[in-house]
């Protein structure tokens, strides 16, 4: 949901980017869509992956939590003769939409879509002034609620962990001081303050507000928790031989996916100080390289691909394991949702 330690994708909160499916060739190669197969696209967006999968003859069940994406996709539904089902749903619930016999493939593109960035009223972009919102599903706690109501210590945790922002303390304290006089209402209100507090240096490749905007978006939409639950759901929904393909755009997401595939593979944990743990039955076999990044050529054409990473696996016949979120070692930020203080 896309930043990372170093590069930031343009969809982290910057200017508009024309929608181009990232790593499309690699995604299709990993999924192997074909007539008779049923593939679930858990992140429909503008339908780039979905249409490419349909073009290969497969049936697609596409999900998106954004009601605007569902509305915009109805023309694609009508044009594909019953081979596309488009459903408003969070992808953590994907197992509920899978057929009883299981899915042949699942693809997840973890990140905010370029359509959302382009809509100023959604509040995702610091370069397009609009309400400080950032809610993908247009409901629940907004970014303005977080900025105006969270305690300083909580803001530091959000910016520091979810945005990997080194100046999180300075920014949080400046927010506290300014909101005492007037609440933050627009993206420009927040971005303007960050520009003053942490001015952009000549060597900086990204806008100083990028990481804070990313952190707010990830927190507001519980993107890391959603991703973790979606991976567990995929384990239940895929049939043996089914393929799980995940494209991420920053290190936090990629770390979750990497840990998931490591935990669900047949690699036993251990060290020279500790005995080897009993090997578990592999739920996923590896598929190609452990990680695939976009080529320089694709990154030149599509800036959004610069930080993209693809990981994939093939479902085995092993039984489903308990959904233990502790394997991801995520901090507990759920208490912050109450917006205390």
TrEMBL record:
Residues annotated to bind S-adenosyl-L-methionine: 47-49, 64, 91, 109, 116
Keyword rRNA processing: yes
Enzyme nomenclature, EC number: 2.1.1.199
Record-level GO cellular component terms: cytoplasm
Catalysed transformations (reactions): cytidine(1402) in 16S rRNA + S-adenosyl-L-methionine = N(4)-methylcytidine(1402) in 16S rRNA + S-adenosyl-L-homocysteine + H(+)
GO biological-process terms attached to the record: rRNA base methylation
Family designation: Belongs to the methyltransferase superfamily. RsmH family.
Function: Specifically methylates the N4 position of cytidine in position 1402 (C1402) of 16S rRNA.
PANTHER family membership: 12S RRNA N4-METHYLCYTIDINE METHYLTRANSFERASE (PTHR11265:SF0), S-ADENOSYL-METHYLTRANSFERASE MRAW (PTHR11265)
Name of the protein described by the UniProt record: Ribosomal RNA small subunit methyltransferase H
Species of the source: Agrobacterium bohemicum
């Amino acid at each position: 949901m896309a930043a990372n330690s170093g590069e930031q994708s343009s969809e982290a909160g910057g200017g508009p980017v024309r929608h181009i499916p990232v790593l499309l060739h690699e995604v299709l190669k990993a999924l192997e869509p074909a007539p008779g197969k049923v593939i679930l696209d858990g992140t429909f967006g503008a339908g780039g992956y979905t249409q490419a999968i349909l073009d290969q003859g497969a049936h697609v069940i596409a999900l998106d939590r954004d009601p605007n994406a569902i509305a915009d996709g109805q023309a694609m539904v009508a044009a594909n003769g019953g081979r596309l089902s488009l459903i408003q749903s969070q992808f953590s619930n994907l197992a509920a939409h899978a057929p009883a016999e299981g899915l042949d493939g699942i693809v997840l593109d973890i990140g905010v879509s370029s359509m959302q960035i382009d809509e100023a009223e959604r509040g995702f972009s610091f370069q397009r002034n609009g309400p400080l919102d950032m809610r993908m599903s247009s409901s629940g706690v907004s970014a303005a609620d977080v900025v105006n109501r969270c305690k300083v210590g909580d803001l530091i945790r959000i910016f520091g962990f979810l945005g990997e922002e080194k100046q999180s303390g300075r920014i949080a304290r400046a927010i506290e001081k300014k909101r005492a006089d007037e609440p933050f209402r627009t993206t420009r209100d927040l971005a303007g303050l960050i520009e003053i507090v942490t001015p952009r240096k000549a060597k900086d490749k990204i806008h100083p507000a990028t990481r804070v905007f990313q952190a707010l978006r990830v927190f507001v939409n519980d993107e890391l928790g959603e991703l973790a639950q979606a991976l567990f759901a995929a384990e239940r929904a895929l049939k043996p031989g089914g393929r799980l393909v995940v494209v991420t755009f920053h290190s936090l997401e990629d770390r979750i996916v990497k840990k998931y595939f490591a935990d669900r593979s047949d690699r036993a944990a251990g060290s020279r100080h500790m005995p080897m743990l009993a090997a578990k039955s592999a739920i996923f076999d590896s598929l190609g390289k452990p990680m695939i990044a976009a080529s320089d050529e694709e990154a030149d054409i599509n800036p959004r691909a610069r930080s993209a990473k693809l990981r994939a696996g093939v479902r085995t016949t092993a039984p489903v394991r308990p959904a233990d979120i502790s394997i991801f070692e995520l901090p507990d930020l759920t208490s912050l949702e109450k917006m205390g203080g």
